[in-house]
Amino acid sequence: MKREIEFDRLLLKTIDNSLKEVFTENAALTIYAFLESNCALNQEDIPEKLDLFVDGLHKFLSTGAYAVERVILENLCSNLNCEVQLSEEHDFRKSVIQLKSSLKLK
User: What distance in Å separates the CA atoms of residue 83 and residue 43, rounded to the nearest whole number?
Assistant: First the structure.
């Protein structure tokens, strides 16, 4: 349970840092505002509602969301000292779940 909470915190921090890395702090805030107003998703709820985050990111960024997802995964894996794990379908949500599950096993 503790590892899951730590992973969720790391995921939130990584998403935030990655959005600011790819865009700017103001643009990241705009994305969060869009997610909140259009997807009813608060920033702190992203780990629990990863599907809403992915859907909202794609609504906001269209195909550009794939590049942002890749940056988030690369940064997350860097923080976890592991290799980037993309699911067979290159599904961001599934890749994050795989990473989280692999940490439970350790």
Answer: 26
Own/partner long-range contacts of 44-51 (Cβ < 8 Å, ≥24 apart):
44/12, 46/11, 46/12, 46/15, 47/7, 47/8, 47/11, 47/12, 48/8, 50/93, 50/96, 50/97, 51/93
Q: How far is CA 73 from the centre of its chain?
A: 7
d(CA 57, CA 52): 8
pLDDT at 82: 84
CATH number of the domain where residue 52 is located: 1.10.1200.200
pLDDT surpassing 70 at residue 58? yes
